Every structure is written in structure tokens, then in C-alpha cells.
Amino acid sequence: MTVASEVNRSGPYIGNGVTTIFNYGFRILDEDHLKVIRTEAGVETVLVIDTDYIVSDVGEASGGQVALTVAPTATQTITILRNVPFTQETDLENQGAYFAETIEAALDLAVMRDQELSERVDRSDSAATAADRQATAIDRAAAAASVAAAQSLLAETVEARDIAVALSGPAPANTFKANATGATAPPQDITGAQAAALLPVFASGAKGVVPAPTAGDIADGAYLNAAGIWVPKKVVRIPGWLTIIRHSATSTNGTSSGTWAFPGNALSASTVMFNYGSFITGCKLYSARWVVAWNPNATTASPNGVALATADSGPTNVVHISVFTRASTTTPVVDGADVTATLQALITAGTSKFICHQVVGNGTTGPMIYSSEIELMWEFTGT
Q1: N or C: which end of the chain has fewer CB within 10 A?
Q2: Where are the domains of the chain?
Q3: Contact 379/283 with Cβ under 8 angstroms?
Q4: Prior bond to 315 cis, omega within 30?
């Protein structure tokens, strides 16, 4: 029989996890003249006859079948190659008998060996070509990586230049230069609020931005403690009094004149100096209430009156703080008025004044003062 075909390879066949029978389309002289290769992920495994597969139809011109013991998966391929030995076992003796079939089989085996060699050479060329392509791809990838690195370096250089230009130029008044974008970027003008957001908050044992007080903290005069917490100031209120006329059964009588005047001598014992502003600066006068016990001594419908006043030496610059008037009564009464605002203004300004009285009569009689005091409540704040 002749070798009429150059085919000595079948496949590759793609597995499906089910099929185990695969055809080979060329003639072989022995079941060992096949090489069955299973390939997966570029790795080739040569299967073992009678263990991994069996061969049928040996000697058929059209080929035969290979039956695998395990079906290849979808990630595997099967390739069947002719694989004849590189030996010559036909022995012809001189003047001996021989058969044409024996000579033809030896010749067929030689042709098959030539075809196998040709297939190996072709595969070597293909492998070389693939290797060349892979090397070319690697070279191109390396070149692309070099270009990318150069572009990145150029971008960083440009960015560094932009930063240097931005930092070296004049900055607008009352602005900050920083990066508040949350990502790498050149510095830019940011607002005070953005700058504050970048800084840590003041807390116990750590430096940082002082937390803003609330409206209530401001109203309470709160202070920031070492833990970074706004704490209300401690408030202490101390009562006191300013006696202008001491309690007495004997009154300080006023004139019956119809104009305001000082009872008795203008700056007598019924006048006191108010100069707290000189040594209580910063202390808050929480409240001040003038309380006067007096008898209007008004026998007619025309009123008599008493006034609390401030004055300078002389007396000059007399200013009434509060005034009470009553008519048609001769019964002693007690009147009171809030004078906090006036006295606190004197304390704040650090002004010394005389605190005194003026009275007014109705032309017939005049008022009588038994006592006059200013009840004081001082407020001190501290930490």
C-alpha cells in the first residue's frame, strides 16, 4: 500500500467535557505510531497509550479513532500526531527470499518518517514566528511603558513649575494658599472657612482651631477650658447697701418752697460720695434699688416730692435719678425705684459723684425723709 497523503496530524479538537472519541485522518502501521497531546493554558501533556487512550483502525488508509479514558474539558484541546520510530528493522538477506509487501512497508515507514520530520520543522517555524511576535509585543509594551513614564515625568515637572510660579507670585490680600480639593493639585486661593476645615480642632492635649461658641455661650460669658469645651463662668452675687439717710424717728425736713432744693445744707450728712468706679472696674452691678421712707406731709391737693440725685462738688451738675410725688396725705410711706442703669453707667465710666436728695414743697408744707438707702447686688464672674 502506498502513502498517498501528506496529512500526518489531526486536530486540535476542543473538548466539551463529554466527547471522548476523536478521529485521526492518516494511516499508521502500529498503534504506538501515534502521539496524543492534551493542551491546556499553553501547557502540553503527552498522553499514555492504554492508560489515557486506546487506538483503533490501525493500517486503514483513511485513518481511525482514538478513544480517551477521560473527556477533555472546554479549556482543553486534543491533537493527534503520527509518531513513527527512527529505526529501520527490515532485514534483507543476500540471495534470500523477500516479499514486495515487506519492501513497501519499509518504504512507507520511511515516507511517514519524512512527513513527521516535515511537520516538526513546520511547527518549529511556527513556534519561532510566535516567539518573534511575542518578543515584538514585549518590545512594544516596553516602549509604551517608557513613553508613559516620560509623559508622567513631564506632567510632574509642569505641575512643579506651576506650583513654583503660584508660590513665588504676589498673593491677594487676606487670602490663603493651599489645596482643599481632597486630591493632589496645585495650591490655590481658599477661603477662611476652607482653611479652618483643614486644621485640627482644639482638644485636650492637642493644638488646633478653637471651636466657635454658641450664642448661649457668648451670652453667659463662657470660657474655653483645657479640654476644648465652652464652660459657663461661675457667678457670685453679693448684697450691699448705700445709706444716704439713716433710719431715724427724727425726719430730715424739706422746705415748703415750690422749687426743688436740698434739705438742710446742700452737702450735709444726708449726702454720700459714690466713687465705686475707681476700684470696682469690671464688676457688674446686678441690681440697685432706691428705697425711701418719707412723709409727703401734703395737707392739700398740691403734691410734695422727693428726688434722688447725683451732683458734683458745689453742688453743681445736679441730675435727678428718680422722683416721687404725693398729694393730700400726711401718712409716712415707703417708695422704691430701680436705679441700676444710672449707677452702672457711673461705674463703667469710672465717674465719682455725690448721691443726694432734693425735695419740693407745695408752698404750704414740705416733705419729711426718715430714711433713704440704695440696696445693691454686686455680681462677680470667674472660672
Answers
A1: C
A2: 9-129, 199-232, 235-382
A3: yes
A4: yes
